[in-house]
Amino acid sequence: MLTVKTNNLIYATVIPDSNNQLLSANNQTPNQISFPLYFIEQNQGNLVHDKNFNTIMTNVLTNSVNDKLLLFIDDNWQNFINQWKNKNFAYLIIKHFLPGVTDTKANTIKDALKLFNCKINIACGNIYLLPKTATPNDSLNGLVKKLQYNLFNPLIEQIKVVDLNQDYQEGFLEFKLFTQSTNDNKRNYYEEINLNLKDNLLEDISKNRLLALSLPEMKNVQNYFKNTKTQVLRNKFNLPHNPTDVELEIIAQTWSEHCKHKIFNSTITCNYLDKNKQISHSKIIHSLFKEFIESPTRQLAKIKPNLLSVFSDNAGIVKFNENYSICFKVETHNSPCALEPYGGAVTGLLGVNRDIMGTGLGAKPIFNTDILCLPNPFENEPIHPKLLPSRSIINGVRKGIEDAGNKSGIPCINGSVFFHNGYRAKPLVFCGTAGIMPLTINGLESHHKYTKINDRIVMVGGRVGADGIHGATFSSIPLAENSPKSAVQIGDPLTQKRMLDFLLKARDKGLITGITDNGAGGLSSSVGEMAKITNGATIDLNLVPLKYPGLKNWEITVSESQERMTVSTDRFEELKRLAENFNVEVTDIGYFHNLGYFEVKDQTFTVALLDLNFLHDGYSDLNLTATFDHNETVHFISEIAQNDVIKPNFDKLVDLNVHDIFLELLTHPNIASKEGIVRQYDHEVQGKTIIKPFTGKNQDGPNDAACVLLSLDSQQGIAVANGYNPLMSYYDCYSMAVFSVDEAIRNALCIGTNLDEIYLLDNFSFPDPLNSATNKLGENNLKCLIATANGLKDAVLAYSTPLISGKDSMKNDYHTEQIKLSDIPTLLISAIGKIDDITKCLTSSFKNSGDLVYLLSAGSLGIASSHFQSIYNLNSDWLPELNLNQAYNLYKNLNIINQNNLIQSAHDLSEGGLAITIAECLFGENFGAVLDISLVYGKTLSNKQSYIDKLPFKNNIALCKLFGEIPGSILVSLKPKDQSKFEAILEESTYTYLGYVTAESQLIIKDNNKTIINTNTATLNHAWKTSVCNTF
Amino acid sequence: MTTKPQALILYGDGINCEHETKFALELVGFDTKIMLTSDLFKTPKSIEKYQLLAFPGGFSFGDEIYSGKVLALQFEQLAKDYLVKFIEQKNIVLGICNGFQVLVNLGILPDLNYEPMCQLNHNSQNKFINRWVNLSVNSKLNNPLLKNLTNFELPIRHGEGNLIIKNEKASEIILQHAALFYENDVNGSFAKIAALTNKTGNVLGMMPHPEAFVTRFQHYNWLNQQLANDQAKPYGYQIFLNAYNYFFC
Fold first, then answer.
1. Scanning every residue of chain A, which has its alpha carbon at the shortest distance from the alpha carbon of B225?
2. Mind giving me the DSSP string for A281-338?
3. How confident is the model at residue A323, as a pLDDT?
4. One of B20, B97, B153, B160 is an active-site residue; which one?
5. B216 and chain A: CB distance < 8 Å anywhere?
6. Residue A484: per-residue pLDDT
């Protein structure tokens, strides 16, 4: 008989009740069986034999149809194990969370048990049973390795494997599940950190404590503490001469690249060399952010009266109409998603939701967007420590976005997925949210904060734990083998949803004077930032509610434990009463003042006291240099590409068949339908999504952008779209930026958005632009960054579309001694816009047979950077180009055409080019078309013969027309009766008539009187829907 | 001149379709109140002021343990008697998506007179699904809330809509209470059942979202004129209108 020590734990599982014969369509035999497992802490008495306990647990944990509660008592384990052994299962696996990891199910069970006055500590896990065949000849260790990242993630979970055919290991049921409260509950107030050290030792402190502070910054800190004025103040508060660990951590979080964007604000000396490699002239960029992002917005602000708040709050705020403003923010969550994709995505999305909730006086999130850039899912790359397989990343991230968005009741209406091996170092996970606010709330303009002296500082929502420590500094350094697991969190949508419901109510009742998110840097950042409003704040850590005891003071101060907001109020008691109804915890942890410092206390003892000016401005400006050769222009090429040298695939080139290329592109994961992913996101909750991801009678025509109603009874819509073009970074980062802006805007225009009311966000995700011993490409990356910023500025000015907020992530690298990987420079542009009259909305699908098809374009033909090129490894640097001025005029005219109801559909050219765009327009209503591309882009070919001559198919330029990815291009359809009015509005050089839509589902494309494509729409549709994207 | 019927819409603890449910009810003529479940449990008697109780869609208690489970437990412990009385007095109870899951967990559907016999389980694909589906009404029941509807479209947005039932005996009873069927097998649900109603027809629990189709703009293809003319009638509106008319027939 098996006897096991159970360290005071009761185990329970819920198994199917075999007495009931289940009627369900689901009859397949699984190769793996799983049951929930509950660990119940038994503190007093003998719960197992308590009948009442059994009844309560059955009530809470089982359904009454097909479940049976099984409490493991005495020899139950033995019976349980034998039962599975007899059914030829070979391994039993027990999985549970590591102590301190958010266990949302356990929290809900505790909520339910309260109904029965039952207060016990419970943790949730799973039992898995694996059959023999699944793992022949595996050692237990080999098995665990195989299960890693599939069945469990070692950063947050632990498994124990029992070989059912072996004797049981002593202690197989011993777990460390709950964070143990130490007997010594009195924590040390702080540790004094001696900074009277030599430079190399200062650097060691920064490195060992994961502070991510440079040597000059460590010296700034050293100097601050040497200062007599500082010391006088410190004496008064009984603080040591040296900084405390609390102070050093606050400084590090506040000065992190993540929070201060030091690279974007650095001073860059650009040296331009002449032919003799001598500096011919130099130019200083004082701040990329100010010169290329903020300045164009300031310029445009003169003609854009609706900009209410840009680059200052948690999100950019724009006046929408006389009653409402909207705000928009997109964040990256790359590093956490690299380590724990599910948790990273949940906390990423919930985090940007909180940015919206923390904008102005608090906005209500109305939609989410998500854009993922991931490594190729087919590739079997060697797995380096901390580099997860692409499939694990996308499965985890997708599930995380699903849970975070769906459970919060915020529709995920727009996004995309892009696979490329340029994302092996870190996956890029862009999470975006827009919100809505009344323009005034209780007589106050909602886009300001009104925090004043003596307002209470209130922490709202979740409790503080050791999870999420050092997130801000961790994301400011490359991923490495020793990346901290404390930076990984799971997230709890329910807690946040309750907080959201509560905060909106509190806001409308006038109980909130200011609000901000507790994100990177935790309290140190949220309170430290808000303290700027009144010029001072004091908090008492002893009041901060903790998930479990044993946290050090510095940990409480910088912990990024999720689902928390910081609020200022002058009516705390009312706020607290309201919160109780919503099941939300609120705690008064201090007050705002104007004494010029940020003070952190532990009861009566001060543990940190920092001058606010020093805290916010004491970091060192970076000084960088970029040297440009005489033949280098601002159109700069990323050398990251050198890892992926293009080798022409001559085998594939031998008989290039247009039909085969077409089908191969349609199934490419970047081009194929993402329906399998999209339908797992709720994109209709709140009832306002009127342009959905898919349209047409079969719900499968892809839309370019999405639109939500301002409110359920409104005739006005809010549009959202995105654009990016990372493959262009291999040729020209300037154009990469221009094309990204252009694509976002075209996408928005294609659903009827007014160009005059489009506002943009920029998200830079770049490889490290700082040169160092381990980063030889730093300067090249910096030059790419400068080029991208230049392109961004030129494009937003040309289109008069101001940037209102943004984010940069500058350390998308992976370093170990064996390998160094860097991401391809990527700029994501997100667009939010206004549709004044939703009856003018457009979708991509052709609407009527007989309608005429036109290509509108301000771009010129090219083949480089296209998916066609990359599939066939064509060696060509024939780049497509865009005439920005012509594009602006074209788009304005498109708006006019649409206002006059002259077009029936619009769809932009993007991944895969014109042929793919045409096919996608056919899908929605299962139409066909007869088109002729002879004249397409003809006028742009005049001086391109040298490029054409180098192509292996130089006599077949139609391939470039069909599959080139040309910016500035939109395919539209119109009723024949509207043809002359339509043409009259456009400049002649910007449109080409292609043909007409047919009811017969056959696509016929001709070039110079020769039919080059003649295929059934269903064939194309099938290829497009058969993609790896449907397997996630 | 009649006074408007009063509808109570629950929210809090993860429910998230309260606003569009309120909009739909007001559109057809109800007076509405959105109330936190925690407030209702403090004074469950206040339910007597209303004629319609809506359990909106969402993820109450994060769908942990089972979807709808914990909210059902709370009702069971704190307000069951009032709810039973509310139903017996022929008021309307509408459970949508997560609300349907709550009603099933409470044993209110298929009917209070039976032992619990069904459960809404994970979809057979084991995936959350958001798409529009074709539905057909069980014409044998003459359910007052589904009047003037035969075959129609509504969106589904759920991960756990797969109705499983206890045994052969239960299947007969369940079929007698099936109000709506999916035209295609979308989630593995027993007999393609999409909605259940009680014997008296005043309790309706449904996985599809009627509140998500009360204006034509909410349809996925409203820009197709042909469809707009002959197919895209807001069927959800009709269901709420039926609820309104129920009190004046």
1. A847
2. EEEEES-HIIIIIIHHHHHHHTT-TTEEE-SSSSSEEEE-SSSEEEEEEEEE-HHHHH
3. 97
4. B97
5. no
6. 52
How many angstroms separate the Cα of B13 from the Cα of each of A493, A498, A580? 10, 6, 12
Count of CA atoms in the C-beta half-sphere (13 A) of A197: 16
Q: Cβ contact (<8 Å) for A494 and B14? A: yes
Question: Are the CB atoms for A665 and A671 separated by under 8 Å?
Answer: yes
H or E segment to which residue A341 belongs: helix A341-357
Residue type, B10: L
Asked if residues A389 and A374 have their Cβ atoms less than 8 Å apart, the reply is no
Residues with Cβ within 8 Å of A674's Cβ and at least 6 positions away in sequence, in order, are A416, A417, A702, A1029
Pair B25, B52: CB distance under 8 Å = yes
Whether domain B6-246 has CATH 3.40.50.880: yes
**pLDDT value of position A482:** 52
Rounded Cα gap, residues A917 and A193, in angstroms: 62
- Residue A465 CA to residue A462 CA, distance in Å, equals 9
Of A251, A295, A287, the residue nearest A269 (C-alpha):
A287
Is there a contact between A697 and B128 if contact means CB atoms under 8 Å apart?
Answer: no
Predicted ipTM? 0.97
**Strands of the A706-709 sheet, one edge to the other:** A689-691, A706-709, A717-723, A826-835, A758-765, A803-809
Apex A115 CA angle, A111 and A118, nearest 5? 80
Residue B97 appears among annotated catalytic residues: yes
Residue B211 bears catalytic tag: yes
Q: Find residues 96-155 of chain A whose CB sits inside 8 Å of chain B.
A: 104-105, 107-109, 111-112, 115-116
H or E segment to which residue A617 belongs: helix A612-617
User: Distances in Å between the alpha carbon of A315 and those of A54, A435, A887, A1004?
Assistant: 50, 9, 29, 47
In terms of CA atoms, which chain B residue is nearest residue A409?
A: B16
Is residue B6 within 8 A of residue B46, CB to CB? The reply is no
What angle separates helix A215-226 from helix A199-208, to the nearest 10 degrees? 110
Indicate yes or no: CB of A21 within 8 angstroms of CB of B73.
no
DSSP H or E segment with residue A1001: none
Question: Where does the pLDDT of residue B34 fall: very low under 50, low under 70, confident under 90, or very high at 90 and above?
Answer: very high
Give the pLDDT score at A661. Answer: 93
Mutate: best of B16, B26, B28, B222, partner A, most A CBs <10 A: B16
What is the C-alpha separation between A1002 and A628, in angstroms, rounded?
53
Question: Higher pLDDT residue, A640 or B197?
Answer: B197
Q: Where are the domains of chain B?
A: 6-246
Strands, E, within A408-554: which ranges?
412-419, 428-438, 440-441, 444-445, 456-461, 514-517, 537-540
Instruction: Name the DSSP letter for residue A1031.
Output: G
In the prediction, which pLDDT does A5 show? 44
A273 close to B (CB below 8 A): no
**Does the N-terminal peptide bond of residue B110 adopt cis geometry, omega within 30 degrees of 0?**
yes
Residue A300 makes CB contacts below 8 A (sequence gap 6+) with A796, A797, A800, A801, A802
User: Tokens standing for A103?
Assistant: 């266990």
> Cα separation of A199 and B113, whole Å?
80
Which domains are present in chain A? 9-163 (no CATH), 185-255+450-621 (3.90.650.10), 629-803+818-1031 (3.90.650.10)
Regions in chain A scoring below 70 on pLDDT: 1-7, 18-30, 43-49, 74-75, 133-138, 167-175, 177-187, 379-386, 470-488, 634-636, 639-655
| Cα–Cα distance for residue pair A673/A396, rounded to 1 Å | 20
Residue with tokens 């370019």: A704
Binary contact (A493, B59; C-beta < 8 A): yes
Token pair of A508, please?
A: 């409308």
